[in-house]
Amino acid sequence: MENSKQTPATAPIITPQAAIESADSRRGFLKNSSVLAGTALGASAGLSAMSIPAAHAAGDDAIRFVVIGCGGRGKGAADNIMNTKGNVKLVAVHDAFEGKCREALSQLGRRHGDKVAVPEDQIFTGLDGYKKAIDTDCDLVVIATPPGYKPQQFEYAVAKGRHIFMEKPVATDAPGVRRVLKAVEESKKKNLMVGVGLQRRHEPSYMETVARIHDGAIGDVISQQVYWNGGGIWYKNKTDDQTEMEFQTNNWYHFNWLSGDQICEQHIHNLDVGCWVKGAYPVECNGMGGHQQREGGDGSKSQIFDHTFCEYTFADGTKMFSQGRHLKGAWNHVGEFAQGTKGTSDPSGKISGPNAWKYEGKRVNGHQQEQHDLIEALMRGEVYNEGEYGAHSTFTAILGREACYSGKIVRWDDLLEKGHDLAPGIDEYTLKSTPPVVRGEDGKYPVPVPGKYSPFA
Fold first, then answer.
1. Pairwise CA distance, residues 82 & 39, whole Å
2. Pfam families, per this entry (predicted)?
């Protein structure tokens, strides 16, 4: 892939802190489609402020939002939104399972009282219930479902003209990324807000450090190391009353078509920082990995790897080395490091060398900060769009996964064009459908074997 064809990681997408506008001004913004933002998002954002189309018609000044996916991050994002200074109201929820909807509403209701205003007829379930939730009278859609389901949900929200916050990763395969990128282009035409849950880009410690790197504080970036090494994740045993699709959707992390593997679901944060620091995306990757400790190496429970190692190569020949794993008893570390021709950096807040510097400002909760920024921008009538770098950072993780699964050098352009569709016909899936991955005659799910697995359809 030629570097000129890439969309480099943008500079920090962040809006300045400002006072919430008056109730009358907010009401005018929500009702009118021609409100123009008065300020840019900041010189480093590389975006102009844009007018916002109206989606609201209920006659008050609240930003009405819905949550698609009521698991940990869905509840978390909703909580973060209701912790902002914005006048916000949760008006509908969706999850594949009713119990998760009700659990989320119970927890959020105890914390936020009348900011939770979800009537019984606006609780939606099943795999297609997201459409009904998005169709309600709302301004903002929060998408926090298993990543395999996100492309079609994002596409539908854009088609309906909703502002969107979507958790990372935004897809699990090349067709999904292509679908998201196409919808991102449509969202730009409609001037929609698109936030993506790569929250380090909203943390001042990262923002200031990366800005200094881009200004030459460590010279040319020639090598990076990124890590997400931890001890493990949850597992939910199949119950007798569950269909196979219900089991996999409820246990989504352990299935590649739903989670994209650990390198996509968690390590994407560090890969995103590395690409942000470099200002580019890799042209190819080779890697290695395996499935030794994941659920004791039991292929009847989980099909994803528990460790990966990648060597990413950028168009200028420089490298980014990646470690991602869930191994009990091993070295745990989550972070990033960069080496340049004039110094080194921990992008979370430190530069070493002739231009030595350390971030001394306030550390913030990135999950909360990204919602402060998003809601404050909407209340001022501004939008920004993180969809493109969200999709490209997701694809960086997919590129690494496919290199590790295959044991081969995989090129960005080849994979984006010809990579596997992990869930053919996903728009038509129900909780009674047969999933795209099932146990074989040996009772085990297919686990990729490096040297035999092919990344291509």
1. 25
2. GFO_IDH_MocA
* Average pLDDT rounded to a whole number, residues 139-159: 98
Asked if 335 and 227 count as a contact pair (C-beta separation under 8 A), the reply is: yes
Place of tokens 């290199």: 403
Question: Which tokens go with 128?
Answer: 């297609």
Beta strands in 261-383 (DSSP E): 284-290, 307-313, 319-326, 333-340, 344-346, 350-352, 357-358
Strand partners, 346: 350
Tokens 């999850």 map to which residue?
A: 95
With beta carbons less than 8 A apart as the criterion, state whether 166 and 194 touch.
Answer: yes
CA angle 307, 313, 317 (to 5 degrees): 150
* DSSP category for residue 318: -
Q: How far is CA 398 from CA 289, 420, 425, 445, in A?
A: 14, 11, 20, 20
**Per-residue buried b or exposed e for 214-241, using 16+ beta carbons within 10 Å of the residue's own CB:** beebbbebbebbbbbbbeebeeeeeeee
pLDDT at 293: 87
Segment 81-114, tens digit of pLDDT:
999 999 999 999 999 999 999 999 999 999 999 9
- The model's confidence at residue 43, banded by pLDDT at 50, 70 and 90, is very low
Helix (H), strand (E), coil (C) string for 93-132: EECCCHHHHHHHHHHHHHHHHHHECCCHHHEECCCCHHHH
Q: Which residues contact 449 (CB under 8 A, 6 or more apart)?
A: none
Q: Residues 16, 59, 137, 72: is their CA dihedral positive or negative?
A: positive
Sheet holding 221-230, edge to edge: 357-358, 350-352, 344-346, 333-340, 221-230, 319-326, 307-313, 284-290, 410-411
The SS3 of residue 215 is coil
Q: Which residue has the tokens 């352009």?
A: 413
